[in-house]
Amino acid sequence: MGKSKNPNLPADLDKWTSDNFLTLKETLKECLPHIRYFSFSHDDVFEKLFPYQQILETQLWLDINTRLISPKSPISTIGLSPRKILNTTLPSRNKFPSNIITIEQALEISSWISQNPQKFKLLARGSRDGFDVKTIYNICDKVSRTIIILKVQGTGEILGGYNPLEWDKNKNKSKRTKDSFTFSLRTANQNYSILSRVFRNFSKAIYNYPKDSAMGFSLGLCLRGDLKRCYCKFNPSYARHIRPIEFIASIIPSKKALFSVEEYEVFEISPIIRTRIT
């Protein structure tokens, strides 16, 4: 309806400008509040809403994605109730499985991996499985596309990294990838998130050294032993430092640069599977 009332809009959506989306939003402004967004199937969100997300309010789009990733998590958008559907078996709905990050932070991390929302499957947690790098290797051995998230003791910083490759508990080896990144997330004490992608020395992007009880992302974020002497070091592989400069080590060990992990979580990341309800 909106496009038919605006015949001058480009047929190719990839060629749309911000003004084109504003035109469509203005045309549909009376209709948008009456759409039952939270009744959409995964396929409908990806096929019908995702291409036009610019005409939706930011909070609404966040809440739509929240419902896809973690259906039991609270949202702030008040929408129309779904129509009643008889004889329907609903899928199980679990809360977002993290004690460190919020659903909003998970969506931010997802956006760094792909434009589509990602599913977070908890593999390991320090308070549940133990604080030891060897434990992480044992649980995550041969698992690819993992996110490691750390809460720093004393500062409350939330640091982490994404490894698209498999962790290997049997071999000491640096691994090559162009798709890994490290990050620190916005918290009460940090006004913005920092994303640091690997941008050179790709062959050393992933630090996989189980026999030395060490793992990380080059030396930009390194976990060691019982996770009481972790650090971020000046390194040539990742684009940005994810900790304040005073906590970045030029040599190791550096007492000020070392930090202890209060809690950690490792997630396996996978795209949300689109299923059509028939």
From TrEMBL:
<dbReference type="Pfam" id="PF07534">
    <property type="entry name" value="TLD"/>
</dbReference>
<dbReference type="InterPro" id="IPR006571">
    <property type="entry name" value="TLDc_dom"/>
</dbReference>
<feature type="domain" description="TLDc">
    <location>
        <begin position="99"/>
        <end position="270"/>
    </location>
</feature>
<protein>
    <recommendedName>
        <fullName>TLDc domain-containing protein</fullName>
    </recommendedName>
</protein>
